[in-house]
Amino acid sequence: MTTAPEFSAARSQSPGPLWHGDYWFLFRELVIKDFKIRYRNMSLGVFWSLLNPLVIMGVLWFVFTKIFPNNSIPNFAVFVLCGLVPYNFFTLAWITGTGSLVDNANLIKRVPVPREIVPISSVCSNCIHLLIQIGLLFCAVLLAGKGVNRYWGWLPFVWGCEVIFVCGLSLICAVLNVYIRDMRYVVESANTVLFWLVPIFYPFSIIPERFREVYQFNPVAALVLACRNILLDGVPPPTPLLLKLSGSAVAMFILGMAVFKLLRRRIYDYL
Question: Any residues with CB less than 8 A from the CB of 114 and at least 6 apart, and which?
Fold first, then answer.
């Protein structure tokens, strides 16, 4: 279990409880704490955010261009990176969000914090890694000869939908993980399956037409398709795709808040 060393200084300077209703202060401190703990005692630190997608991209590029050559996809390395960055963010944020309440049990018991903010801040701490990987993706796109276009303005919206979706999903899984400690392993297994359900190394066109509408409700797949539309094809994402992405994000967040509020009453008994 993690403690809250970053909160100790603020606690010593305040005669009363640490949290005084300042949600932004609490959110910011939790995000910083999660980020510092993740790379504590690591030699390369945040550079792992760059190395991980580069290594996987290199392996997939070698397999599908040298061993099983497929010349039907131009700029295959960048094509793969457009799939890996959304997938990496989703899986890492989902796993850390799921374990956030248990990992911060000491803080939750000692400080009267709103418990919903713990999984949400855990997900958002991964946005720091996401920004690093998006920077890598932008560099790869530019090096591939794809210039900046006016549709890049859609990127904050589509990525924001993804963050909202993962926050809602993590609220559900985090509170379930308090009662059922196997949830972390369920999430890890689901992420393995998800790797094959997201068009990371294969084009959307190979999906049978009768499954395409349902397939686009997969929020990670929808984000990958939107990013490729914008960055590689230079066109805006189709309106139906944007509606599915935003609709699923809002629905999942509402569901996550509802489930969390329903199950949070006995959290202290199980932490």
Answer: 23, 26
Give the residue ranges of the chain where pLDDT is below 70. 1-22, 38-50, 70
Q: What is the DSSP code (8-state) at residue 98?
A: H
CA–CA distance, 251 with 241 (Å, rounded to integer): 15
CB distance 248 to 217 below 8 Å: yes
Task: Report the distance separating Cα 218 and Cα 185, nearest Å.
Answer: 21
pLDDT (0 to 100) of residue 39: 66
Radius of gyration of the chain (CA): 20
Mind listing the pLDDT tens digit for each residue in 34-59?
777 766 666 655 666 667 777 777 88
d(CA 16, CA 41): 33
Q: Please give the full DSSP string across 137-164, using - where no structure is assigned.
A: HHHHHHHTT----GGGGGHHHHHHHHHH
Q: Residue 87: CB partners within 8 Å, gap ≥ 6?
A: 194, 195, 198, 200, 220, 224
Task: Give the pLDDT score at 40.
Answer: 66
Question: What is the predicted pLDDT for the residue at 266?
Answer: 83
